[in-house]
Please model this.
Amino acid sequence: METTTFLPRIALFMRDGEILGQIEKILRDHYSSLLVITEREKLHEIDSPIIVITDSIQEVALIRDIPPVDGTDILVVARDDDTETLSAAFDSGATDYLAYPFAPAEVIVKTEKYLMPFRDE
Model:
């Protein structure tokens, strides 16, 4: 019986280096397939991810318009008490958010929530 290994395709598009470092460390401890993008010009390198995690609300709509990403779940990192930013993120097409500062378990739980449907494919 042949088994396949599930490789989650997670893309990080971050402008804040501190947040990027924290999330990248958490995710690299759990997942091997991670694409890190820090420049807007490199967004076209995203190829059929399952999840995009970003701290750039301004780029959510742009990410949504990239053909292999248009149906992908997008998680935005935002301060939990920043309702204006969260509202703008959801209006732009974000699926969910990670409250900053976050606990490592929260990052993994939210990520797994969106990876789970793809594990049985």
About this structure: The two ends are 16 Å apart (CA to CA).
